[in-house]
Amino acid sequence: MNALIIGCGRVGSAVAKALAGEGWNVTCVDEDEEALSRLGSWKGGFVVGHGMETDILDEAGAGEAHAAVVATDGDNSNLVVGQILQRRYGIGCVIVRVLDPARADFYAKLGLRTVCPTQTAISTVTEAVIACQPADLERAQV
Amino acid sequence: MYIVIAGGGKVGANIARSLIAMQHEVTIIEQRRDRFLQLEGEFGHAAMLGDATEIAVLERAGIARPPDLVLAVTGDDEDNLIISQIAKEGYGVQKAIARVNDPRNQQHFDLLGITQTVCATSGLLGLVEHEVPEHGLVRLLELRREGLEVVEVQVDADSPAAGKRVAGLALPEGSRLVSVMRNGVAEIAVGETVIRPGDQVVAILKPGAEDKLRRALVG
Predict the structure, then answer these.
(1) Cα B81 from Cα B138, distance rounded (Å)
(2) CB contact, 8 Å: B82 with chain A?
């Protein structure tokens, strides 16, 4: 199976390595060629460029990809590139990282698989506070 | 009309000024504080500070009313696309016009259903082509939603159309001559109009008929 990763930062590079470890054929796209260093000894593909450019997406093999992850640092870029991969290239499994919970929710309703780390952090932190036991909530003498 | 303008740079600010002068109700959203302060100085409460791609900001600007028109004219194509999509698909805004900064992104606006776009670069390029007659067909206007375009072509002495009546031309299906410009004077083209060398002919046609029309008029 072929996977395309747009945005090779902390999230993108780690996902790329994990998928490659699972036997996927992975190609990464990033504007900065230094991003390649995050991948370590990388045997997959790497294309320098912006995901809005269809030449770059063609070169990265969007036409043959079975799954794509869009995780650049711009929410709006991610949302646009995700929709391009879905509609223009017909990739069924497109996962888009969106930091703004409201936009993540809005585009999820429009049929995009959005993942919102901010929402995950909000839920996890809130749960952690609520999970504190009465003993934890007692104030210590300082 | 109630109009929301996203982006308070030169384009947005000038449109806001004109629309306010035409007695329309306007909200102009700008995320850079220095620009916002300038806009606030001129437009008062019509100016709003915020990122127009944030749903909460659009809601404060009254996107849920919904506005009669949303203009997405920031300097970022991604942002203009997202603003137009949220307005149309999230809030039922009937009319959203988006600015395309990089003409290569036009295809993305088309793909995502943002049919009304304005691209200054493409417009300028059209004007340049207009000044270079050997290009053959010059596109004057594209009516995307209607599926029509208006083109202009210069007829020369050796063109097949030279010396012929409009009614006698073998024009392709889905095309029609609109006017003939001769010595700076335009005339509506009718069946009896005779095309002369040097004439500038304006035609309306369905996209795809360009090559056939070019062959019929100028060879």
Answers:
(1) 28
(2) yes
